[in-house]
């Protein structure tokens, strides 16, 4: 399975035992370019909170009742938990659950033993850091005026508890009601735990959870009923969500957001798969765009910047090896669907920031 898709499907089908495992990350750096070796992989053990009856029951419900789209939220949280040396998210392990932590840890261990150039979860680490940095830059571009941040398909996202740049922002988390309820139960369990309540220091000005299915026609109405103000500066965050939607559903969501450019300063942060990525698992991934930097202007955004994993603003010190798969893909034209060396599909993930305003003058955003 090509690595980009493999990175999204983090759940192993085989049981494994979690062990403390220091792993040197020099396989992710280039020995030729003289870059320094990375530190050893952080030691990891399951938090005691994951063994409590309440948390076990909650994660059992996730395993038994959630579909692949909903379970992807736990996979993302596992990536953030196990890449804690670059991502500070103390709630991630609780939100991920034992199964996803064990499975990803086993993959990381095997990658390190095999001296893989791409360690499992690195794409999630880079993606998280990219969204964090672009969100901070977008809020800064509003000149510290009160802003809204809408997380569509919020899942197990804990940004409202870990990013200080949200201190003046009202955060709206939109997701299925069952996802929000489970997340609330896990957060309450963390709060009730003597050893974990300190994790729940909210950094956002406010958090509002909106139970809605963005595949339907009423999610914007529910968002506004919950206090969202269409005329207020807004950053829309769509991380790891668009490709699970159908083409018509994804286009409708993007059109609704683009329409807000005529009302106020509007910033969209989203990731897009290209066609080869989605065709490898057509039962799970549906929407794709090979040229999102062409699609979004056609919908009404006046500024669009596209990045690929390994680009200067999507690197974060994790992509030193020039033979890393992502760096090899970046050297090929985006119109190439199969790699000329071995015929494998060119599976790409595009990280895209787009913006617009009533005056169509977009403040410069830091890289």
TrEMBL record:
<comment type="similarity">
    <text>Belongs to the UPF0677 family.</text>
</comment>
<dbReference type="Pfam" id="PF04072">
    <property type="entry name" value="LCM"/>
</dbReference>
<dbReference type="GO" id="GO:0008168">
    <property type="term" value="F:methyltransferase activity"/>
</dbReference>
<keyword id="KW-0808">Transferase</keyword>
<dbReference type="GO" id="GO:0032259">
    <property type="term" value="P:methylation"/>
</dbReference>
<dbReference type="InterPro" id="IPR007213">
    <property type="entry name" value="Ppm1/Ppm2/Tcmp"/>
</dbReference>
<dbReference type="InterPro" id="IPR011610">
    <property type="entry name" value="SAM_mthyl_Trfase_ML2640-like"/>
</dbReference>
<dbReference type="InterPro" id="IPR029063">
    <property type="entry name" value="SAM-dependent_MTases_sf"/>
</dbReference>
<protein>
    <recommendedName>
        <fullName>S-adenosyl-L-methionine-dependent methyltransferase</fullName>
    </recommendedName>
</protein>
<keyword id="KW-0489">Methyltransferase</keyword>
